Task: inverse folding
């Protein structure tokens, strides 16, 4: 890995400024990445980084990206919750970088829930 | 955790929950002493002495409805299996310092890993917190002293 130099951090700060502004304002969407020990151990950092890259790439300055702790379903980590303003939050499970990119494109940007990655689908079984 | 940068991300999460506004991460590699020291220092709300001891117990947690808290115990285990140890020093109201010491050359010692991404995601998601990261390598070359590398990321 290349060594991290002071000017790299300055550059990262500048890059992040657009993203971080969102938290103060009223965002259109909020992505909450679950960053408990379980999440981090199963790859949450790469997924969070992928969301960041997507937000930057799309110039989506109205998307709030934040973190929370363990959500209590460690076996389905990495997990993220996506909430569009005025709509029901959706929990996505077993995420990776590719899935994060799809969730961002389809749900965050186009409002279409990616049901196949969501925690729950369908009704209880009646027997 | 496969590397130290992931442990850092995890331990820093404790500092965030502890309402820290400033978090300093320092890694010192000392070849002469064959030691790697990772220090995470915050100015959060700190802990009483009993809690600072209990937090190394995997069955201790402050979270509601949870039975385990594995962040610090995992780092302690990683340090201890490399001939090192982990210390937690905390002052209520002033902050907490977590220090993990590893034998630098130990075969099981985890690599530092991708600190760049750890810092990137931390500064992006915690804009109100000031992070600093310092990496110091003390090489075992007596004829030529190596300059220390310093890196600071400050957010306002």
Result:
């Amino acid at each position: 890995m290349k060594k991290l130099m002071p000017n790299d951090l300055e550059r990262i700060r500048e890059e992040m400024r657009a993203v971080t502004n969102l938290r103060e304002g009223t965002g259109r969407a909020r992505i909450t990445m679950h960053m408990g020990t379980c999440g981090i151990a199963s790859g949450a950092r790469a997924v969070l980084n992928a969301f960041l890259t997507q937000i930057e790439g799309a110039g989506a300055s109205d998307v709030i990206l934040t973190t929370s702790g363990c959500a209590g379903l460690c076996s389905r980590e990495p997990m993220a919750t996506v909430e569009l303003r005025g709509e029901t939050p959706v929990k996505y499970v077993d995420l990776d970088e590719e899935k994060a990119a799809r969730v961002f494109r389809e749900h965050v940007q186009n409002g279409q829930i990616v049901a196949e990655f969501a925690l729950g689908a369908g009704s209880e079984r009646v027997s | 955790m496969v590397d130290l940068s992931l442990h850092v991300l995890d331990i820093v999460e404790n500092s965030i929950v502890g309402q820290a506004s400033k978090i300093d991460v320092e890694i010192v590699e000392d070849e002469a002493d064959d030691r790697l020291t990772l220090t995470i220092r915050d100015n959060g709300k700190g802990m009483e002495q009993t809690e600072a001891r209990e937090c190394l117990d995997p069955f201790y947690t402050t979270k509601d409805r949870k039975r385990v808290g594995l962040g610090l115990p995992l780092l302690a285990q990683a340090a201890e299996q490399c001939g090192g140890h982990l210390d937690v020093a905390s002052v209520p109201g002033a902050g907490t310092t977590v220090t993990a010491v590893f034998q630098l050359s130990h075969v099981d010692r985890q690599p530092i890993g991708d600190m760049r991404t750890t810092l990137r995601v931390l500064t992006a998601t915690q804009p109100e917190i000031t992070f600093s990261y310092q990496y110091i390598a003390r090489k075992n070359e007596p004829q030529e002293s190596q300059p220390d590398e310093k890196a600071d990321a400050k957010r306002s």
Remarks:
- The mean pLDDT of chain A is 86.
- The helical segments of chain A are 6-21, 37-41, 44-58, 97-108.
